[in-house]
Amino acid sequence: MNRIVTIFLFLIITSCSIGLDNDVSEENLDNAQSFLDNIIANPEKAKSLLHEEFTFAWMGIIEQGGVIWNKENLFDEYFANIIPEILPNGIVLTTTDSVSDENGVAIVQVGDAEGKNGEYDNNYVWVFKFKDGLIHSLREFNSDILVAERLYDYKLVPTE
To answer: Is the pTM of this model over 0.85?
Structure first.
């Protein structure tokens, strides 16, 4: 009889912990999506979702890539100065897919925008990592060739 009780208790505990993981996973997804929805429209809301040790980097391989931004300069410099310069009419981002667990979130989005050098409809993958229930790091992946041409003043030239 003790063995049956032990197995029953194990099943209850396991199902409760799986439920907790699912709750954390859903909360992480909600917070990541809220961050993306509010970075321009409501920066204080977006900033409230960030851990004190937060870092952000665009993972492109042109010289603008790899810069590590923190909680303060991301909003005070990147979103306040750089983004309006390269995307003067803003951008509409639409989430098409996502995956999440208790440690992180990946969100796939398509963008619709006019860059300073022409049409800029990039595809994005945002990878969020969480610590203490807050966004600890964010990495942005997209076509750096499109970024280089349409947002910065790079020209692609054929090799001889």
So the answer is: no
